[in-house]
Amino acid sequence: MKINGKTLTILLCCILLISCRQHRHEASVTPVEDSVRTEKPTTPVLVPATIASMQCDWFSTRINLSVNNIKPEKELVSLTAFVVNKKDSAIFITLNKLGIEIARLLLTKDSVKYANHLSHEYYWGQYSWLKKQIGMDINFFIVQALLLAQDIPDFEPVFTANVSNDSIIYTAAHRNNTAHTMILEERIITDTAHHMLYHYIKDIASVNTISVQYNRYTLIDGFTCYQTIIIDIPNENLKIEGLLKNTKFNTAGPTTSRMPVKYKPINTTH
After folding, report:
1. What letter does residue 77 receive in the DSSP assignment?
2. CB neighbours (10 Å) of residue 8?
3. Is the distance from CB of 57 to CB of 85 less than 8 angstroms?
4. Is the pLDDT of residue 19 over 80?
5. pTM of the model
6. Residue 13: what pLDDT?
7. How many Å apart are CA 247 and CA 225, to the nearest integer?
């Protein structure tokens, strides 16, 4: 099946996001008594989300992907992705079909390099174009955090935490970025070992959402890593399910990309 350029771009930069529908909890209502009451309501304690960290300099994996429409639920295409992350430096992703590379994306802290081998087009530039494709504010460190199942850096630690027997639920209705004006609504669920299981993100400005679910944590080379992932991007009607294989830690991989010869630049005005 033919895949359009925008779908390829979204797949490349969101490849390790996983979705699940957000569960809505009704707040309990406490009756107000007419009798005299002097104590004030308890203010919720605001805390950072405690997430188990993968302290590695390199992370790489191959992912078998199934790309689906959310409504109607239907598979669009199956692909294989190859992903490399050099910590705080570069994220390199390729999409492959039947062993043939059809697109690649290289993200650094200040640049986006994208090539679509189906349409013979490329983009080399800043994150403004990628933000337009995704429909949300996005940068290198957001993608890296989602890739490694970590909390997004440079945001205020303003979660309220609800602890149960087998999980910890963190919620934040209005979380500000300390570096610029981005504001998020978030919900994070971890197990009691602090491995991230679920991450719901809503960009307040665009009202677009992404949900991420990480499952089947497994010990690999001394690191505990999820093995199945799902991406839910409602504004694009896309759901992406993935199974990781050949995951490696602290093994260097490709982090460069050449400008494609004879490809035409993507028109960024549309």
Report:
1. E
2. 22
3. no
4. no
5. 0.81
6. 54
7. 9
Burial of residue 99 (number of CB atoms within 10 Å: 0-12, 13-18, 19+): exposed
CB 261 within 8 A of CB 77: no
For residues 216 and 204, the answer to whether their CB atoms sit within 8 Å is no
CA pair distance 238, 90, nearest whole angstrom: 25
Reference 5, options 140, 133, 136, 106; nearest CA is: 133
Q: How do 121-125 and 264-265 pair as beta strands?
A: parallel
Amino acid at 113: K
183-242: pLDDT as tens digits: 999 999 999 999 999 999 999 988 999 999 999 999 998 999 999 999 899 988 999 999
SS3 percent helix, strand, coil of the chain, rounded to 5, is: 10, 45, 45
Q: Are the C-beta atoms of residues 268 and 129 closer than 8 Å to each other?
A: yes
At which residue do the structure tokens 């209705």 appear?
173
Q: Which two tokens stand for residue 36?
A: 């005299």
Alpha helices in the chain (DSSP H): 5-13, 127-134, 140-147
Contact 231, 17 (CB under 8 A): yes
Q: Residue 28's pLDDT is what?
A: 35
Three-class DSSP labels, 218-232: EEECCEEECCEEEEE
Q: What's the token pair of residue 35?
A: 């009798």
DSSP state for residue 251 in the 8-state scheme: -
CA 127, 129, 132, 138: dihedral to nearest 10 degrees?
-10
The number of beta carbons lying within 10 Å of the beta carbon of residue 153 is: 14
Q: What integer best gives the mean pLDDT of the chain?
A: 84
Q: Is the dihedral of CA 95, 22, 148, 243 positive or negative?
A: negative
